[in-house]
Design goal:
The protein is of the alpha/beta class. The chain has helices at residues 18-29, 41-53, 68-82, 106-133, 155-175, 193-201, 205-211, 221-232; strands at residues 9-13, 33-38, 57-62, 87-90, 137-142, 180-187, 243-246. It has one domain (9-245): NAD(P)-binding Rossmann-like Domain (Rossmann fold).
Amino acid sequence: MTDMLTGKVVFITGASRGIGAAAARLFAREGAAVVLAARGTGALEKIVAEIRGAGGAADAVALDLADPASIRAAVGRAGELHGRLDGAFNNGAAIQQPGPLETTSDEDVERQFAVNFRGHWTAMTAEAALMRAGGGGAIVNTSSIGSRRANPALPAYGAMKRALDSITETAAVTWAAQGIRVNGITPGGTATEMIDAWEAATPGIVQRITATTPMGRMAEPREIAEAALWLLSDRASWVTGAVLPVDGGAGA
């Protein structure tokens, strides 16, 4: 590998599966000491054991993105383990029950706000406090292609991801002078458990996503993680406030 994250401590939410798990493995291979966070630590411990078995450095912490106290505790634990934080990949998310705007429930809206917006907000502020103490760092937030256009099938999800894009840009401007870069990525259709759940609720959605993607296929989780890797690395030292499409041309 290219050792793009050698010597860096990186915190990853939603690390038990999909893009987050792919990022954990990739970042560790690129030299980072990774702290993996998700609600259930069972799956995390398996990834930690895999990374350690390959000679990497990894730890697991429990985190509930709907609970601000849990988020702050998980970020704080990363600081306790390593004494600093250099990078954070805020990737955890919750999918809403697919359906049109008029059938979206209050509970769906509230959960989308709690996890997909407030959870990131809370994580970012806790991460930035650690980074500030260490002289700076880099944060990457996983948004969605659905944040950049109308999202009739997932209206609450799209709305909160669009709000996340806004706070990503605001944080980048606010914290730039403190040496903290903040960027986002907007993945298109990616072969993850979340897409599997959407397919189960709406049969044929994978075929429709593939048909509207110019590159003609779904992304693999590692391909999305590669974009986050670059943004977290020093090779992206002049990039902040960007919301990068990683969607096979679907949003063009």
